[in-house]
Amino acid sequence: MKDNLNEYTMLNQFPLGMTYVPVQEFQKIYENLEKAFNCGTIFEELYKPFTGRRCVR
Question: Distance (Å, rounded) from C-alpha 31 to C-alpha 46?
């Protein structure tokens, strides 16, 4: 237990990370709610299915 606690206290040595998240404007919304449910989002531009390599439609 003490070894695990030591690992976590070592994290205090590192600086906090910073991120940049641009503002997203929603353009299109799925009209068909069943399709939106199957895609997992009502916003068309957020639908990025996993293809194994890249997010493509």
Answer: 15
Tell me the chain's radius of gyration from C-alpha atoms.
20
CB-count exposure of residue 36 (10 Å: 0-12, 13-18, 19+): middle
In this structure, are residues 49 and 35 in contact, taking their beta carbons and an 8 Å threshold? no
Q: Which helix (H) or strand (E) holds 35?
A: helix 33-39
48, pLDDT greater than 90 = no
What pLDDT digit, counting tens, does each position of 10-46 carry?
A: 777 777 888 887 787 778 999 999 999 999 989 898 8
For the chain, domain boundaries: 19-57
